[in-house]
Design brief:
five-stranded parallel beta sheet, about 850 residues, alpha/beta, five-stranded antiparallel beta sheet, about 50% helix
Length: about 850
């Protein structure tokens, strides 16, 4: 008894449910036997074990579709065997359909997804994943089952019959509530088998290229999403991106699907603008096609439809074929289907698996909710979208501004901001809100704390303010009684504020008694009265004071403030300046500047000294002032140390001392030479001049001598040189300033730091000094006139042309030496002058 007979016998004895179980096992065994025959036949031929009347069936798929060589007669025997088994399977299928029993108890709605191709193809995986995401089986009480026809590998009638038998056995116990299909082969399969396998079950499809109305005869409840191609829109977008394109080459394979896609593309591309021509390749082996694509000239572009296999039967995947086609060309390749958007392919308005699957999933939810499939129109438009690859756009220098509206760019390089833009924006907004809230709260707290502190320091505020001023400050009432008394007033009179307050001004400060009329005048006019000067003896010297009276009106109380400033030193400096100006000559301008600098320098040093005293321990006034401020003197000094204020005071004092030294150098330089030669240490003279030049900063020409790198090459054991020191300093200073100005205007071209090099050498009875820089140098026409009087390359108003000529005169005429210049453009300037060790 065969397995099928035993299954049927069991069906009669044990009932429909148990019989169907055995029938399923028997049918599965038969289906496996059929597939084993189909697989074993070519394998047997390869190993030499096949019967002599069975030949290779490796090209069966091509021959079934009309491609490939004519089938040998011996192959008929193997097909006859397959048909015989298939007929048995069909009979079993018919018996199984007739013997369907009661559906099992399962509240979930069974949805069958039938894919045309194998699950290993990217398109199939994408459709399956999208359908599962849209239907959400766990949330919508759906049982989703996936079957793959795998028609790209084998599509013979025997295989399709066996696959139908397998579906009948698998779903004999439970009929799906809805069937979903992807691509044409699955829908063609159901057109033949739907009535027998799944009568009355609605069918929804996607990815179908050649839909025809006769399908509704075989499948009454039918709708879905057509796979349309947007060749026209893709081509127009392609021409906008590549304006020089005049030839578009279409690439499709010559399968049934490829021919259908090619026909659709030809119709859409009729009448392209600017006379663009459309070309198609004849059926070629894949390697020949790649060779032809590699020879396409500039001004051409490729529009890829679908390509799966070539006329010789070579096939792999759509993705692999498209990527290799794009890699072989030297011109841009645009595509029609999303599975080709990889590698060097640019993109286009694509028919996408996920987009079609999304539309299919939404239709499926409507059908499962009660809508009849026949009432849902077949969707033909609105599924395709413009998609482009970012690396390909960059390769062909295509700006995203040229892309059609609503285009999507994929495969961009990873960007943290793009990946988490919403989260980062929300986080930034949250941080800003928190920062604003914290700032407002902090401001309110500071205001409240400031108000509380203000109540505590009102009594001390005025005294601290007055004590911080370097003047004698005395407040008086209209009756002449003392109301304010700072520590300078206390130091001048020997009376503390507590002793002087409330007493008559003439009693506590006798020399201010004569200021009462000025106080009354200021109170009456409401205007400050100043400029009063008075002298008073202090030991053996006479001090000069400047008095100013300010009217004071506060909280309804009237009075005045008397400020007394000791201007003795200022008057002395003023007198010295007046006397100095009378004695100035053209060469004495530096001395006047030195005296002008002494004025703020004295104030700085005096202020530093006073500030140091104000924070020194052991002084009662300092302790008192600190306590009145609510601090101890140690706390004040601790704060000053932590904030490095004490160090800053030391720096100010050091800078003041250095400024005094600079002033002394300027005074020495400004003195007129007395005409007598003095033996000088030449190296020390150079260093003094460098220090003087370091303090020369020209704001107009924006050069700073201190920015130069100084390189010294001093000859050891150099004897003292008899010379006029001020004149040699003048020569050196001219050379140093000229080098600094040249380097500031034209820094070294090689990126080296601006450098001034000074070299001293002894040659018998001469000492040579060379001053070099790495600046721009001089052209020959400038070098020949460098020592001419009034010749300068500087703009008008920036140079007199006398510096080098005067220096040349001082060295050659006054000292009996020589002066030479060596320079080339781009190689700096080298000035060398000599001084005799013995003067005439």
């Amino acid at each position: 008894m065969t397995a099928l007979q035993r299954a049927m016998h069991g069906l009669g004895r044990r009932g429909a449910a148990k019989g169907l179980s055995r029938l399923a096992l028997a049918g599965l065994f038969i289906a496996l036997a059929v597939m084993a025959v189909m697989v074993w036949t070519p394998a047997a031929l390869a190993t030499g074990n096949a019967p002599p009347d069975i030949t290779d069936r490796a090209n069966m798929a091509d021959m079934s579709s009309g491609a490939g060589p004519e089938r040998p007669a011996a192959n008929a025997t193997s097909e006859a065997v397959a048909r015989s088994v298939a007929d048995s399977v069909v009979k079993t299928l018919a018996d199984a359909i007739a013997a369907r029993g009661v559906q099992p108890q399962d509240s979930r709605k069974l949805v069958l997804l039938l894919n045309s191709y194998e699950q290993g193809m990217g398109r199939v995986r994408e459709i399956t994943d999208t359908i599962e995401r849209i239907l959400a089986p766990a949330d919508n009480n759906i049982a989703l089952r996936v079957e793959n026809l795998d028609s790209k590998r084998v599509s013979t009638p025997e295989y399709l019959n066996a696959f139908a038998a397998l579906l009948a056995l698998k779903y004999a116990g439970r009929t799906p509530a809805l069937i979903l299909t992807s691509d044409d082969d699955a829908l063609d399969f159901l057109e033949k088998w739907h009535a027998a396998l799944f009568p009355g079950v609605p069918v929804l499809f996607c990815g179908v290229n050649h839909y025809h109305d006769s399908l509704t005869t075989a499948i009454p409840q039918l709708s879905g999403v057509l796979s349309t191609f947007s060749a026209r829109e893709t081509a127009e977008a392609m021409l906008a991106m590549h304006p020089g394109t005049r030839h578009i080459h279409l690439v499709n394979d010559h399968t049934e699907t490829g021919r259908a896609v090619a026909e659709s593309m030809r119709k859409q591309l009729v009448g392209l603008p600017d006379g663009v021509q459309v070309h198609e390749f004849p059926p070629l082996p894949f390697d020949d096609l790649l060779s032809r694509l590699a020879t396409l000239p500039q001004g051409a572009a490729v529009l890829l439809g679908v390509y799966f296999s070539d006329p010789t039967g070579y096939a792999t995947t759509f993705e692999d074929m498209g990527e290799r086609i794009a890699e072989a060309t030297r011109v841009p390749v645009h595509c029609q289907v999303d599975f080709n958007l990889r590698g060097a392919v640019v993109g286009g308005k694509l028919s996408g698996a996920s987009m079609q699957a999304e539309a299919l999933g939404r239709m499926a939810l409507r059908v499962l909710s009660g809508t009849r499939a026949a009432d849902i129109p077949v969707q033909t438009e609105g599924v395709n979208r413009f998609l482009y690859r970012a690396p390909s756009l960059e390769r062909w220098a295509i700006s995203e501004r040229l892309l059609p509206p609503e285009s999507t760019v994929v495969d961009r390089p990873f960007s943290l901001y793009r990946a988490y833009r919403i989260q980062l924006n929300v986080l930034a907004l949250l941080v800003a809100s928190l920062a604003s809230t914290i700032a407002v709260l902090a401001y309110m707290m500071r205001r409240r704390a400031a108000s509380e502190r203000q109540l505590r320091r009102l009594r001390n505020l005025l005294a601290n303010t007055l004590d911080s001023m370097p003047s004698i400050i005395v407040g008086v009432s209209p009756d002449g009684l003392v109301t304010h008394w700072n520590h300078h007033a206390a130091s001048a009179t020997g009376l503390e504020a507590t002793e002087a307050t409330g007493r008559p001004l003439g009693e506590v400060f006798p020399r201010l008694e004569r200021l009462k009329p000025l106080v009354i005048e200021a109170l009456e006019d409401g205007q400050p009265k100043g400029g009063q000067r008075q002298l008073h003896p202090e030991g053996d010297t006479m001090r000069c004071e400047e008095v100013t009276v300010f009217p004071l009106v506060a909280n309804g109380a009237h009075g005045a403030v008397i400020r007394v400033d000791d201007v003795t030193e200022r008057e002395r400096i003023r007198e010295m300046m007046v006397q100095t100006e009378k004695m100035l000559t053209v060469g004495g301008l530096a001395a006047g500047m030195a005296h002008e600098i002494n004025n703020p320098l004295g104030g700085i040093l005096q202020a530093v000294q006073n500030m140091r005293r104000r924070v020194e321990p052991g002084r009662p006034d300092n302790e008192t002032a600190a306590r009145e401020a609510g601090l101890s003197l140690e706390q004040v000094r601790g704060y000053l140390k932590r904030r490095e204020i004490l160090r800053m005071l030391d720096d100010i004092a050091a800078s003041g001392a250095r400024a005094a030294h600079i002033v002394a150098n300027m005074l020495d330089f400004s003195r007129k030479a007395d005409g007598s030669f003095v033996a000088q240490d030449l190296h020390r003279l150079i260093e003094n001049t460098l220090e003087l030049a370091a303090n020369d900063y020209d704001l107009k020409k924006l050069y700073d001598f201190r920015m130069l790198r100084i390189v010294r090459h001093y000859a050891p054991g150099l004897p003292p040189v008899p010379c006029l020191p001020t004149e040699v300093e003048q020569v050196l200073l001219n050379l140093f300033k000229n080098a600094a100005q040249a380097l500031a205007a034209h820094p070294p071209a090689d990126g080296a730091p601006p450098t001034l090099t000074i070299r001293t050498e002894r040659h018998h009875n001469l000492v040579a000094v060379t001053v070099s820089d790495n600046g721009p140098g001089m052209p020959p026409e400038v070098r020949t006139r460098a020592f001419d009087p009034f010749y300068t390359t500087k703009p008008p108003g920036e140079g007199t042309g006398l510096g080098l000529s005067v220096s040349y005169f001082l060295i050659t005429h006054n000292h009996g030496g020589s002066f030479a210049l060596h320079t080339e453009p781009g190689k700096g300037a080298h000035f060398t002058f000599t001084l005799p060790l013995r003067q005439r």
